[in-house]
Amino acid sequence: MTIGVPKVPFRIPGEEDSVWVDGYNFVLINRLHRERILFLGQQVDSEIANQLMGLMIYLTIEDDTKDVYLFINSPGGWVTPGIAMYDTMQFVQPDVHTICMGLAASMGSFVLVGGEITKRLAFPHAWVMIHQPASSFYEAQTGEFVLEAEELLKLRETLTRVYVQRTGNPLWVVSEDMERDVFMSATQAQAHGIVDLVAVENTGDFTMPTIKQLIRNTRQPIRNVTKSPALRGCPQRRGTCTRVYVRLVQIMN
Which residues are designated catalytic? Predict the structure, then answer.
């Protein structure tokens, strides 16, 4: 937790009571979302998938001409939420840039490859791992193992077909790679067609505003933040958010 930064009340959708959150993180994440920058920094599950899908749909409604940037550092997760995220990325009108930082394994790599072709990037020391699905979306009894195996084969066929379409590799290559855990460096992932670029340095091939630029270039007055519905009910919300914003600018400068 950041020392010296006040907390602000934040009401989670569906909950009646507000919870106190770190004001620095609240303003920063809120600002990043307004700049159409999203993060997948955990295992893929229904909760994070629903959040990211909701944000992508919201940003599409807000402006369907601006691209969305999805940063990925995920060890994998559940197949069904990952496929749902992939389908949403193909459904929304804006191009979704996917950026691998750290590790994109299992369903993390599936989301990574689902970005707009020519707009998928990996950091130079990032790793990508692909393999076949190893778990189901329901708990099966002993007598249901055969049916579960059939469902897993269907899921494997779905994942394989997507990798073939998005990477341009032959079916036999993708099928062989998915037989086991295959780890790839950023350059190997580029050669495999999972990403299109490797970010060695900012050469202009992949342009995106830096965090400092996001803070310095903001033109929205602080009153827009203090009027956020999430802060209603707090008598000192204006002064608190102002101090948080000033503190954020000081840190970034």
Answer: 106, 131
Mean pLDDT (the chain) is 76
Domain span at 96: 36-202
pLDDT digits (tens, 9 = 90+) for 227-249: 444 444 444 444 544 554 455 44
CATH number for the domain that contains residue 78: 3.90.226.10
Give domain status of residue 157, yes or no.
yes
Q: How many CA atoms does the CB half-sphere of 226 hold within 13 Å? A: 15
Quick check: pTM over 0.70? no
Q: Which residues share a beta bridge with 71?
A: 39, 99
Cα angle 118, 178, 45 (rounded to 5 degrees) comes to 75
CA-nearest of 139, 196, 141 to 166 is 196
> For residues 203 and 177, what is the distance between their CA atoms, to the nearest angstrom?
32
The total number of structural domains that make up the chain: 1
Torsion of CA 176, 181, 183, 189, to 10 degrees: 40
Q: How far apart are CA 251 and CA 215, in angstroms?
A: 10
C-alpha closest to that of 103 among 62, 65, 74, 145: 74
- Identity of the amino acid at 69: Y
Q: Are 166 and 113 in contact (CB under 8 A)?
A: yes
The b-or-e profile of 73-104 (16+ CB within 10 A means b, else e) is bbebbbbbbbbbbbebbeebebbbbbbbbbbb
96: which strand partners?
68
Amino acid occupying residue 32: L
